[in-house]
């Protein structure tokens, strides 16, 4: 059950190793040469290659990041979840260090990457991976100073994500409650899936070691304490995930969310709700195909939320045949744009008020010769939007208590926003139209 | 991060001219610090791009003694890479190392002990123990946590020495350290050492350890929590109550943002659940596990993949979980193919009368996507639903008919393949669709699809008016067909003859003649001989054999044997749980115990791919009569263990005949040849001679079918020729490889 990995590689898409670190010396580093050929072989056999596979007693686990592969190899029955997450963590930390993680930034920073790989993993076991803490003692600048850096207390502390001695002149906390709506609607207009993925994101500018307590209108908490919400409704979260700063056992006991936050930006918690809600933006498509020579789309979009809210930057992506030409559009609102390289039409609406309904017509010519071999790709329509000051779930921050030894007063700011997640609606089959409709 | 914008490292890599090493040598010896540092950087850059700079060893090591931390780190890095190639020179570095473990800066102390442990050279070990002892007692937790891991490094190289120096005891003490990271690293090291220890007494998780670990759990980093949860699972609870208590302590971890913490917690809960007597408590646990499992699907695709493989396992162990969540497994258009494939598997596992309508409409949708592989799997899934849920079979058949009407070639072929399974499961129920199937006769070009349709025609010959014409039609290209199709045609023709003797006497004669005289493939030729002899000796016996009842087929949602299941549950979140194979099967350890072989074979029976069939087909054809010389069992195993990635293993047996790609036809033949070694002397017309090879290979094949196989994968036509009665066959499959079956004996009496 030991989860150790033997070595980590960062490769380009041609399989060339850009940098590597051998942690255990139990696998010849040449094993990496087989990696890409094996992946390509699997691809050829039309088997979608899985992100981990075994060959000749060596296990390969890898992720794609931009134009790179991050690969871990191991001989043991390693903890695959840990390895995958660790590879993602490497990508995140390096991205925070260099803004972009790509071939060039790796070449430019190989010294520091070696240092980080050494610090983040020892003998194949993940160690410190908090990029904010790492940045305190692994930096390029530190060596210019005469004073030698020391390991920050936080590295091994129970509070491994926050250093002591942080000072701000103005103590502030910003809370963003962001809800992403995942929606899948089939061609008949039935909602197959509808879930809300919420996140409470924080930006913390607080001095010292502050103790924070966050109160939400959490139904389970109200029930367990026998109180009822003073106003408004309470909500039931299906599953809550917390940043490691939150005391999980305390939450399990009495549903209080208490924590010492990291400095700066982080995601305090995410939650999921499966409650069926009316899709916020409903789009209907009518596709008419005129004996293969042209195709017409009638798109109707409805904002199904309260009138006093409105959705901003709405984008409706409508897939069209790849060989469509001579686009013509007519819409009641917003702008319509044909993006041939993505084979779709994008209808943009800056502001879409609740309760309103708009429609758009698009018309395309189709080449007379059609390659029947090509199976029709049928991507779904996807919709992007943002609705500020609004949450679908009705989640509310009731309080955020901030306590610090020095007793300063800090200001919490809260914002709510709902946006699209995976918001997709499948296209209906086109109907064969006989009569010509005017455009 | 303005600090890191660029250090202009290109120049380190760009220097490519000849005599570079000489130049580096000069710079490494320079009197200027900056120049030396620059040279070390260039050395490391060369190392990074794979150039050999080991010849600079003494000069680089000379730069080790420096107060410049960056320089020191670079030299250490160099040492780790090249110590192995210069073991004698490593001694040069020892002094500095030992001095550094005494440095005032804890960062350097830790760095030195960490690096020393990574230099896997005996000479270093002599000098490692004293500094390591000091570092294990260091005031600074950063040094202690590094030293803890270092003990595991030493252990890996020299267990004796680690024991002699009492490091194991020291590590055990560190489990009670005041610092959470020291505790988790001590646990990590001990767990690894326990695994490779001969006496298995390095880290026996007892009540005291368990309590300390539980106490540290709340304070550790995410990775530390994983280590602790992993070791916690090793604890053997005394009674139900204790198991409940531990589960309760672990439950809060399900709320952690790190998916691996969540899965590790689920592993503990799943393992301890076995000890819990209260059904209500277990129910509560199952209920609590569902939402976190669903949330794992919001992670990165690679993590989703690992999670889905684990959910697949957990579902087989506890079918009551996730019952109302099938929708979350619906595929998104932009999911990577490997995620879609796993979601599809889980959708089928969760399929029941209530949600079948939804699932069917999803599957139909997937069947119109562009990824051929996925489309085929979706079509196949519809067939599996039909076989699983009797009430839904008609709807499934209708969907399949709709799909056949799309005339998309690969959809039609896959649909016909699964319809054959539906016919086997529900004989005589859907005869009405046969004409529709036959309309697509000409578009079939894949052996399995062709074989399936031919099987249907043979099986229903008496109800298909023009069955003889259809068969005749296929026979035109008999000699060019894939052996799989040939076998099918052979059997179908014989069936036709037995059902309608008047119309087809001429056909059957012609087929048998062609097969025995013009075909070299022993499978086909010998089956023709067998039929011929049966028909000429005793037509009644032929009827009894060829037209016998087929054993029922079923699609089981749980396809892993209970023993293997328990082992896999113990390995939740690890590679074993992803491959669905016991760790031994892929850990480079090629010596298998008989038990492991059996387990592994059983594991494979469920594999969606048809490797089992391929393997079974390949080894006899390739090794032929000489099979006894090679060990076909080993060959099969080699194939098997790669089979979760079938494309990635090169089969050790390279088939000389055309590669059969279909299901396990020859398995049927094995059924009646199992005790051949004793009776091969009287082999009729050379039949038995070439079969003796099969007798041996049969072992893994049949033992693998002991676990219920998904329909259509293993042996899709059941007994094809129908040798042996179903009941006996069943029984035979469950017997160990060497047993002789009575059915076989009966049959051999026929010759």
From TrEMBL, chain A:
CDD domains, A to Z: AP-1_Mu1_Cterm, AP1_Mu_N
UniProt keyword annotations, A-Z: Cytoplasmic vesicle, Membrane, Protein transport, Transport
InterPro entries referenced in this protein's UniProt entry, alphabetically: Adaptor_comp_med_subunit (IPR050431), AP2_Mu_C_sf (IPR036168), AP_mu_sigma_su (IPR022775), Clathrin_mu (IPR001392), Clathrin_mu_CS (IPR018240), Longin-like_dom_sf (IPR011012), MHD (IPR028565)
Compartments in which it is found: Cytoplasmic vesicle, Clathrin-coated vesicle membrane
GO biological process, one term: intracellular protein transport
GO CC, any one term: clathrin adaptor complex
Pfam families: Adap_comp_sub, Clat_adaptor_s
Residue intervals of the MHD domain: 170-426
Keyword Protein transport annotated: yes
Homology family: Belongs to the adaptor complexes medium subunit family.
PANTHER family: AP COMPLEX SUBUNIT MU
The protein's name in its UniProt record: AP-1 complex subunit mu-1
From TrEMBL, chain B:
Key words, A-Z: Membrane, Protein transport, Transport
Clathrin/coatomer adaptor adaptin-like N-terminal domain segment(s): 17-538
Biased composition annotated in UniProt, kind: Low complexity: 646-666, 701-711, 725-744
Single GO MF annotation: clathrin binding
Subcellular location per the Swiss-Prot or TrEMBL entry: Endomembrane system
Region (Disordered): 603-627, 642-670, 701-751
Gene Ontology CC terms, in alphabetical order: endomembrane system; membrane coat
GO-annotated biological processes: intracellular protein transport; vesicle-mediated transport
UniProt-listed InterPro entries: AP_beta, AP_complex_bsu_1_2_4, ARM-like, ARM-type_fold, Clathrin/coatomer_adapt-like_N
Function: Adaptins are components of the adaptor complexes which link clathrin to receptors in coated vesicles. Clathrin-associated protein complexes are believed to interact with the cytoplasmic tails of membrane proteins, leading to their selection and concentration.
Family listed: Belongs to the adaptor complexes large subunit family.
The name this protein goes by in its record: AP complex subunit beta
Species for this entry: Mortierella polycephala
Gene: APL2
């Amino acid at each position: 059950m030991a989860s150790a990995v033997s070595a980590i590689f960062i490769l380009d898409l041609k399989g060339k190793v850009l940098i590597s670190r051998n942690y255990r010396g139990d696998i010849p580093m040449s094993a990496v040469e087989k990696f890409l050929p094996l992946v390509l072989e699997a691809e050829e056999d039309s088997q979608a290659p899985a992100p981990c596979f075994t060959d000749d007693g060596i296990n390969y686990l890898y992720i794609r990041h931009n134009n790179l592969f991050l690969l871990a190899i191991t001989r043991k029955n390693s903890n695959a979840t840990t390895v995958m997450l660790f590879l993602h963590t490497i990508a995140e930390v390096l991205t925070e260090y260099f803004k972009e993680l790509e071939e060039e930034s790796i070449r430019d920073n190989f010294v520091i990457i070696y240092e980080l790989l050494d610090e983040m993993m020892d003998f194949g076991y993940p160690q410190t991976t908090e990029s904010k803490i790492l940045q305190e003692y692994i930096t390029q600048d530190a060596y210019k100073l005469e004073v030698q850096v020391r390991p920050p207390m936080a590295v091994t502390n129970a509070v491994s994500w926050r250093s002591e001695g942080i000072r701000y002149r103005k103590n502030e906390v910003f809370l963003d409650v962001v809800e992403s709506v995942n929606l899948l609607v089939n061609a008949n207009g039935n909602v197959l899936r509808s879930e809300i993925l919420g996140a409470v994101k924080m930006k913390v500018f607080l001095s010292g070691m502050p103790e924070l307590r966050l109160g939400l209108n959490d139904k389970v908490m109200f029930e367990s304490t026998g109180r009822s919400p003073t106003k408004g409704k309470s909500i039931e979260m299906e599953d809550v995930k917390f940043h490691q700063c939150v005391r999980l056992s305390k939450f399990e006991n009495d549903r209080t969310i208490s924590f010492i936050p990291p400095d700066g930006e982080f995601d305090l918690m995410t939650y999921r709700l499966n409650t069926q809600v009316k899709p916020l933006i409903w789009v209907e498509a009518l596709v008419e195909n005129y004996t293969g020579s042209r195709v017409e789309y009638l798109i109707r979009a409805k904002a199904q939320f309260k009138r006093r809210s409105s959705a901003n930057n709405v984008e409706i992506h409508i897939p069209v045949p790849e060989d469509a030409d001579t686009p013509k559009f007519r819409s009641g609102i917003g702008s319509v744009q044909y993006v041939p390289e993505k084979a779709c039409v994008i209808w943009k609406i800056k502001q879409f008020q609740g309760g309103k309904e708009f429609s758009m017509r698009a018309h395309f010519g189709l080449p007379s010769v059609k390659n029947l071999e090509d199976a029709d790709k049928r991507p779904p329509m996807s919709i992007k939007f943002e609705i500020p000051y609004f949450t679908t779930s009705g989640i509310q921050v009731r309080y955020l208590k901030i306590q610090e030894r020095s007793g300063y007063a800090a200001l919490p700011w809260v914002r709510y926003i709902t946006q699209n997640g995976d918001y997709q609606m499948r296209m209906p089959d086109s109907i064969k139209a006989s009569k010509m409709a005017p455009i | 991060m303005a600090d890191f914008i660029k250090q202009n490292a290109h120049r380190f890599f760009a220097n490519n001219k000849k005599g570079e090493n000489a130049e580096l040598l000069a710079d490494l010896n320079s009197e200027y610090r900056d120049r030396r540092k620059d040279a070390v950087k260039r050395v490391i850059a060369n190392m990074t791009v794979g150039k050999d700079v080991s010849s600079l060893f003494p000069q680089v090591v000379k730069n080790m003694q420096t107060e410049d931390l960056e320089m020191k780190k670079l030299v250490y890095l160099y040492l780790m890479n090249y110590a192995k190639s210069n073991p004698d020179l490593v001694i040069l570095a020892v002094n500095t190392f030992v001095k550094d473990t005494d440095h005032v800066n804890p960062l350097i102390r830790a760095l030195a002990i960490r690096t020393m442990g990574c230099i896997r050279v005996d000479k270093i070990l002599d000098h490692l123990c004293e500094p390591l002892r000091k570092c294990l007692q260091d005031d600074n937790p950063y040094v202690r946590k590094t030293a803890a891991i270092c003990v595991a490094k030493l252990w890996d190289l020299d267990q004796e020495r680690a024991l002699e120096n009492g490091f194991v005891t020291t590590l055990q003490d560190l489990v009670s350290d005041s610092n959470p990271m020291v505790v988790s690293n001590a646990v990590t090291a001990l767990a690894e050492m326990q695994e490779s220890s001969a006496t298995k007494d390095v880290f026996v998780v007892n009540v005291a350890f368990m309590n300390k670990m539980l106490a540290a759990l709340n304070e550790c980093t995410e990775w530390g929590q994983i280590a602790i949860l992993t070791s916690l699972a090793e604890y053997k609870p005394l009674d139900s109550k204790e198991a409940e208590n531990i589960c309760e302590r672990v439950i809060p971890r399900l709320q952690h943002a790190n998916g691996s913490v969540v899965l590790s917690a689920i592993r503990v809960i799943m393992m301890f659940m076995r000890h819990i007597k209260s059904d209500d408590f277990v129910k509560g646990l199952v209920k609590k596990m569902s939402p976190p499992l669903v949330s794992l699907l919001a992670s990165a695709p690679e993590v989703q993949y690992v999670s889905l493989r684990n959910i697949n396992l957990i579902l087989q162990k506890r079918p009551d979980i996730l019952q109302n969540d099938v929708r979350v497994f619906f595929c998104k258009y932009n999911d990577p193919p490997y995620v879609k494939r796993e979601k599809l598997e889980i959708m089928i596992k969760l399929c029941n009368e209530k949600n079948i309508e939804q699932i069917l409409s999803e599957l139909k949708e997937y069947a119109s996507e562009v990824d051929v592989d996925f489309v085929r799997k979706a079509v196949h899934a519809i067939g599996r639903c039909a076989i699983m849920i009797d009430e839904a079979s008609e709807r499934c058949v209708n969907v399949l008919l709709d799909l056949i009407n799309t005339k998309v070639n690969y959809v039609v072929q896959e649909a016909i393949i699964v319809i054959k399974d539906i016919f086997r499961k529900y004989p005589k129920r859907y005869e009405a669709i046969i004409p529709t199937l036959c309309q697509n006769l000409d578009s079939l070009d894949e052996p399995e699809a062709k074989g399936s349709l031919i099987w249907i025609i043979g099986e229903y010959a008496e109800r298909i008016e023009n069955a003889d014409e259809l068969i005749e039609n296929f026979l035109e290209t008999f000699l060019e067909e894939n052996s799989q199709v040939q076998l099918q045609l052979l059997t179908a023709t014989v069936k036709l003859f037995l059902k309608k003797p008047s119309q087809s006497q001429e056909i059957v004669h012609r087929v048998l003649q062609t097969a025995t005289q013009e075909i070299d493939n022993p499978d086909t030729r010998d089956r023709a001989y067998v039929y011929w002899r049966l028909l000429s000796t005793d037509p009644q016996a032929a009827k009894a054999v060829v037209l016998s009842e087929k054993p029922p087929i079923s699609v089981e949602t749980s396809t892993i044997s209970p023993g293997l299941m328990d082992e896999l549950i113990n390995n939740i979140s690890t590679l074993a749980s992803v491959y669905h194979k016991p760790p031994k099967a892929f850990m480079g350890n090629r010596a298998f115990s008989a038990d492991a072989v059996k387990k592994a074979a059983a594991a494979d029976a469920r594999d969606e791919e048809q490797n089992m069939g391929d393997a079974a087909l390949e080894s006899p054809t390739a090794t032929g009569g000489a099979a006894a010389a090679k060990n076909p069992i080993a060959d099969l195993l080699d194939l098997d263990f790669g089979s979760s990635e079938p494309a990635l293993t090169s089969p050790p047996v390279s088939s000389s005949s055309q590669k059969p790609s279909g299901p396990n036809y020859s398995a049927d033949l094995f059924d009646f040849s199992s005790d051949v070694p004793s009776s091969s002397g009287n082999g009729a017309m050379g039949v038995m001679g070439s079969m003796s090879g099969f007798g041996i290979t049969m072992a893994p094949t049949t033992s693998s079918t002991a676990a219920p196989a998904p329909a259509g994968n293993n042996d899709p036509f059941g007994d094809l020729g129908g040798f042996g009665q179903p009941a006996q066959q069943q029984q035979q499959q469950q017997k160990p490889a060497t047993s002789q079956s009575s059915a076989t004996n009966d049959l051999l009496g026929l010759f």
